[in-house]
Amino acid sequence: MSYLIKGGTVVSTTGPNPADVLVDGERIVALFAPGTGPQEIETIDATGKYVIPGAIDAHTHMQMPFGGTEASDTFDTGTRAAAFGGTTTIIDFAIQRYGEVVQDGLAAWHAKTAGTCHIDYGFHMILGGVDDESLKAMDQLVADEGITSFKLFMAYPGVFYSDDGQILRAMQRARDNGAMIMMHAENGPAIDVLVKQALERGETDPYHHGVTRPQELEAEATSRAIWLASVAADCPLYIVHLSASKALEQVAAARDLGRNVFAETCPQYLYLTLEDQLGAPGFEGAKWVCSTPLRSKHESHRADLWRGLRTNDLAMVSTDHCPFCMKDQKEMGVGDFSKIPNGIGGVEHRVDLLYQGVVDGKLSLGRWVETIATTPARMFGMYPRKGVIAPGSDADIVLYDPAGRTRIGVDTHHMNMDYSAWEGWEIAGRVDTVISRGTVIVRGGEYEGRAGHGRYVPRGLSDYLV
Amino acid sequence: MSYLIKGGTVVSTTGPNPADVLVDGERIVALFAPGTGPQEIETIDATGKYVIPGAIDAHTHMQMPFGGTEASDTFDTGTRAAAFGGTTTIIDFAIQRYGEVVQDGLAAWHAKTAGTCHIDYGFHMILGGVDDESLKAMDQLVADEGITSFKLFMAYPGVFYSDDGQILRAMQRARDNGAMIMMHAENGPAIDVLVKQALERGETDPYHHGVTRPQELEAEATSRAIWLASVAADCPLYIVHLSASKALEQVAAARDLGRNVFAETCPQYLYLTLEDQLGAPGFEGAKWVCSTPLRSKHESHRADLWRGLRTNDLAMVSTDHCPFCMKDQKEMGVGDFSKIPNGIGGVEHRVDLLYQGVVDGKLSLGRWVETIATTPARMFGMYPRKGVIAPGSDADIVLYDPAGRTRIGVDTHHMNMDYSAWEGWEIAGRVDTVISRGTVIVRGGEYEGRAGHGRYVPRGLSDYLV
Amino acid sequence: MSYLIKGGTVVSTTGPNPADVLVDGERIVALFAPGTGPQEIETIDATGKYVIPGAIDAHTHMQMPFGGTEASDTFDTGTRAAAFGGTTTIIDFAIQRYGEVVQDGLAAWHAKTAGTCHIDYGFHMILGGVDDESLKAMDQLVADEGITSFKLFMAYPGVFYSDDGQILRAMQRARDNGAMIMMHAENGPAIDVLVKQALERGETDPYHHGVTRPQELEAEATSRAIWLASVAADCPLYIVHLSASKALEQVAAARDLGRNVFAETCPQYLYLTLEDQLGAPGFEGAKWVCSTPLRSKHESHRADLWRGLRTNDLAMVSTDHCPFCMKDQKEMGVGDFSKIPNGIGGVEHRVDLLYQGVVDGKLSLGRWVETIATTPARMFGMYPRKGVIAPGSDADIVLYDPAGRTRIGVDTHHMNMDYSAWEGWEIAGRVDTVISRGTVIVRGGEYEGRAGHGRYVPRGLSDYLV
Amino acid sequence: MSYLIKGGTVVSTTGPNPADVLVDGERIVALFAPGTGPQEIETIDATGKYVIPGAIDAHTHMQMPFGGTEASDTFDTGTRAAAFGGTTTIIDFAIQRYGEVVQDGLAAWHAKTAGTCHIDYGFHMILGGVDDESLKAMDQLVADEGITSFKLFMAYPGVFYSDDGQILRAMQRARDNGAMIMMHAENGPAIDVLVKQALERGETDPYHHGVTRPQELEAEATSRAIWLASVAADCPLYIVHLSASKALEQVAAARDLGRNVFAETCPQYLYLTLEDQLGAPGFEGAKWVCSTPLRSKHESHRADLWRGLRTNDLAMVSTDHCPFCMKDQKEMGVGDFSKIPNGIGGVEHRVDLLYQGVVDGKLSLGRWVETIATTPARMFGMYPRKGVIAPGSDADIVLYDPAGRTRIGVDTHHMNMDYSAWEGWEIAGRVDTVISRGTVIVRGGEYEGRAGHGRYVPRGLSDYLV
Ligand SMILES: [Zn+2]
Ligand SMILES: [Zn+2]
Ligand SMILES: [Zn+2]
Ligand SMILES: [Zn+2]
Ligand SMILES: [Zn+2]
Ligand SMILES: [Zn+2]
Ligand SMILES: [Zn+2]
Ligand SMILES: [Zn+2]
């Protein structure tokens, strides 16, 4: 089946350009100057709309096990919510825990996603125990499984933590097999001291989750990861959920040297703060407990992160979607912030929240598309199949209405959460139509997709290296 | 007339993608997944070739008057040579001298180009005398004449030199009318002291042209221009012909702050050196006398410039094509390097010389296209008409043969110069076919174009600002 | 005549140490562990006092001609006021104006000081016109006249301004003859544009003196001077009256590279601000019109300058004492801030104002002495004759009472000014006794000195270079 | 007993000054202008000599247990050798091992030193196991034992290693009790990976000790220590044996911010290199196995370290004296560099080796004295008792002969080592006479001291903080 998306303005990384887009089956097959395409064909009217590549969220945690509970979105509910928000591909994290076989972890995640996803998906692999076996597994996943990125943690001693020797070994192996090392960059051993001291002082509310994770300990870990990557012959390094000015400085300094060091930030760090959200009265702040934490509004974090997005010191924006309900889940931490499950849900809102940046003059249209779609595809080995409106690419397409408005709240969102981190926010722009591999799954805001439509996307090596 | 460029690999800024390109008249009208385009149509076979946007050289000086002589390429010979090298648009410099009316200078350059150019062209305007009248003229040129960039000189006191007060005023005006300030950043008054002292010491050979223009005086002027632009409320600033590591540091520092500061470098700075070329025996070095000068091979300039191209601290590459023959022209400076006309011809070789960087692993394919075509178009207000293979864009297209080789020399080049700055260099890649606004002007290396085909391109404001 | 200063605590640059000081004639002849000195001798009781080297103010302008008027303190009134404040040596500026003979300027200043000074004095030479003649004069002054520092101006075009070529030539000469180049680092040509524009907009009050001299134009000039000094083979460079954070950054960066770049700041920049003083209602702000100007309290200038004093990025503190009365003098600029004579009087208060920094925990005792006495002596070639309590040194000694308090105001100060820039300030510490070359000139706050006691101090080369 | 050191030039941190020094008993009691002191008194002729404060070596390891052996100098042989070299005080390291009681470690070291030392000595305390008990012990040692500096290790996992949580806790405690944290800054876990890999590849010779400890892992650890100290409310931090350019950059950056971050380097890093010494043929390189290791001569380490000494980014020079003989000791590592005891002996040569820097124009005389004597005293709470020639100070004095020469070698040195790390070096300057608390222990190069003369010096808090 063929159809023509007509009358819209295609936005690429270098800017907007009016063009009609011909879809045939699952792929884009042609782009036409307006009105020059085939006449006798079904059309989708894109007049007044931006036609952008389906957005890619490269950092989600659907139904992730965490401290006796599990992230509240399944791959079913989570990918459906993502689709509503204009995201047509996610990359989730399969997990190897210490002592487990890497391939078993991957198999478990394949089992969870089989038949449940509404949109396409790939996996990064979390390595919870770097040793000879897991290093061999890295090679195999890169060669055979389409897994080309591996996440390590400098925090959470006893859970996912790798020491610097393990990190160095994994980086050396990545250097050899071409994979990307993703890093949760916070100094866990030092944070744990601060957390223990705070709790001993009776500082138990959610706000202290933030103050016990000072930006210096994110900056330090970011810096350390960069040093270790240089010792590993400049292994490519990707810092996840960068939240703080001083951490950004470390990344920017490495990039000035031409290093293959990249970072993402998340919408929550661009908008929300330690004081206004995490410091909300009572236990309310638990809604925004995530790590890295929200930062102080009295410092320049948010302005610096927006600037970093403009300068490409921050390559892209992911959500780190990891939702937990207040009831029964976040509530586990009443009286002890360290027991609050860490995570914010937002997979549905990234495209809109970043478009607000366009409206506010903080990003160009081209940079919007780049940070939510094109760079994620290039960074993680899915380009040009994903991330671009081009002949031959998957027909993952969003029609975005710049004249629309989006109001966010628990009553209207589609994520499986009993609150919204953005309750009451009304912002410019609206996702109008979402196409996944040629199939319209959202039309005029109404859902037409289905669980099982989404397919696994084996990924190649990053082609984003400098 | 229509035809299909078939079988090639279209390269955009984000990377290569196989696609067929449909040209109708002067424009690109469609891109197709390979083999999906119209069947009954004339075709150009691009099998094995890169299909890239026609390159844009944003810094040339055809038949520029200089010290009693004139650059040896006319707009006719120079644009024909450019076409041979895959360049389909140049931006040359119209000149206002001190005491002249700006619009008269522009008219003079329009007169020179009328009917003589083989490819499209635009103009920057050199302001040789900033005062109330010329500031008013800036506004008029931006509004009515398609001139949106204005060059000032911190060197050449008594010729083009503007003092810091004049620079500040021009920057303030540019801030208001949206234009870009281009800067020749060398500290002229200090250089003139060093030149005079060298000549007094009997140091008269071409090599001393280089040592009397130390990189510190380029870095200083670059830094000063950046400070002045910040006082002018962050007026957009573009540093021309950046040659030196320390100057690059200034640009990089400003860009880290998110400033609208940009820079170009030129092929000569990426490959040639103070010692090997400018320091050639006898008067030979005169061939490479240009300002800013070639830099020492014992410092890290070339590696730093290549890195700057990768990190986008250098946005693009121009040639600063300003050819003079050895005979009668360069020879004016025998016995006094300060009398050697400043300039190197290279408009024909930029695309090839930068492709060599791709082969050497210094640039990605996408970045090659970006630095020679897409960014110049965006930087100087010609995008998406120029600089991109997209439906609706001018059909300025180059078929580039990665399997070919190019040998450079005076016997084979098409520039009106009696020597080549790159004599004997043989490099990878070859321009196969060049299309200008739909017309094939070079086919399989043979020329089919004509003087007068080229048209003036009025330009809009830069859409490259961060 | 001999006497013993007994019971006090001698403060050197490395800290306090109890010791008794024996003075014989004009010199210090011995230091003793407490109580171990000669018994049968006149004593001055220093119990509870700090015994510090007489302070040196290396930047004053007594009776300096300026725009038809003259700084209101003569060498008589000004050096007497200095003595009251614990300063026993000044270095004033002799002036060569454009077109004048350097030696004539020096002779004029020797004439003014002959028989009039209460304390010892030296001269820096202002070069208002760098040319072959004045460069030769530099050599002669260094060799024969004890003048080893030469001040140039990057501001005041048409008055003292040197262009970058002149600056470079003077720096080269200084490099050869060993002298120090002192620099008034503000970009005058750019400032003059801003001043003209402000006046045209009717912004005529003193506050606009400040905003038309933005810190960027001080930082730029500071940076440029540092670049030029590097071209002059690392000629020693001393930035006068540094006032702004961004200028300090330039100095700090050069010093990190081990460059011989130094800077002073002044008490007014450590305490007073654009808003609170220069922005006082009506014409009141004229009291604080000086260049460089007071900086905004909403930026971090004051904290940064104090930190710079601690880190030695700021080597020392001078006053730039250049007093003008409100009546008839400052009033020349009613309705046009650019006509207000530039200058603040403060020669009397530096020692106390910096001691307040000790009380506030911003400086150590040793650093206090270093910044007001020892470094000025070393920087400007008077050490160990001046600036230290050591056997053989001139007996320039201050007994400072840390338990005392000083209240500043026009009723009590001794400078010839009809207002005080520090009216009503009450600060910790008090100058108790001042000894100049063995003679007590202030005792218990009462004056015992006389005009003509002060002698010219020919200076050697700086021994402060790194 | 009294005597007068007559005719010499006293050198203080601010420069040389001729003066005579009166010693009475153990103390200096007076300084006199030349010739003005007492006449009827025993004299030591210092004509032509520099009279400097006895040098202080703040980093030695006499008879330190290490991997089944012990550093080859006892407190007896080592302090005697130190005295020959002009050092009159050492600060050695008492050791708490993991699981031991801190105070027991201190007692053990007091037992070793009782009656054995030729010169005065103090102790730092190595904390090999930070926990609640040892943190309490810190307070007690500061309050009662004159131990105010505590060393932690980021290297040597399983031996002295502290993790980042332990480091943070110790820093917090130091912040509260005023102590200085000293840091061995190398990333041990990462180094251990590199060492294991090298040995597996058969790279077993001493040279690979160096290449498995790349400067990046010193710089990283230095940076991390600085970050952790900032989290500990700017706890004072002292980096030991800094050897590398990139590590120095970290310290310099912190110091530019006004942080209380200090560093020492050692003579071996100023002169010796990875290639020329550690890379000597066969097992010869074992002589120079120490950690941090010698650095590459192809990089700028040595020049940068000398510059750091000039700029005070390196505060002082210690030896890290930790001698092992080749026979039986270094030989333990034949065939496995990781088994070579780490350490170089040099306590005897520091004063001379640094004086060579004066001769080479790399340090001023005043800075020489500052880096070997005055700053060590101030940094570690012994000033003004030690480190300065001033009335009331201990009569620890060296007469240094600038006209002498020193030839270093195993035949002439006094350390208990069967080789010299400086064999055959002949350098300018010579220690002539050494006085410890008033007693001449070296006279004209001949030894007159005795074991047991040296006394324990309880130390106060650092008074060197900025
Ligand atoms: Zn994470
Ligand atoms: Zn995550
Ligand atoms: Zn130019
Ligand atoms: Zn040019
Ligand atoms: Zn001035
Ligand atoms: Zn002044
Ligand atoms: Zn160590
Ligand atoms: Zn040690």
From TrEMBL, chains A, B, C, D:
InterPro entries: Amidohydro-rel, Hydantoinase/dihydroPyrase, Metal-dep_hydrolase_composite, Metal_Hydrolase, Metallo-dep_Hydrolases_sf. The modification N6-carboxylysine is found at residue 151. Transmembrane segments: none annotated. Residues 50-440 form the Amidohydrolase-related domain. GO terms for molecular function: hydrolase activity, acting on carbon-nitrogen (but not peptide) bonds, in cyclic amides; metal ion binding. Its cofactor is Zn(2+). Keywords: Hydrolase, Metal-binding. CDD domains: D-HYD. Pfam families: Amidohydro_1. Carbamylation allows a single lysine to coordinate two divalent metal cations. One of its GO terms (cellular component) is cytosol. Belongs to the metallo-dependent hydrolases superfamily. Hydantoinase/dihydropyrimidinase family. This is Dihydropyrimidinase. It comes from Pseudosporangium ferrugineum.
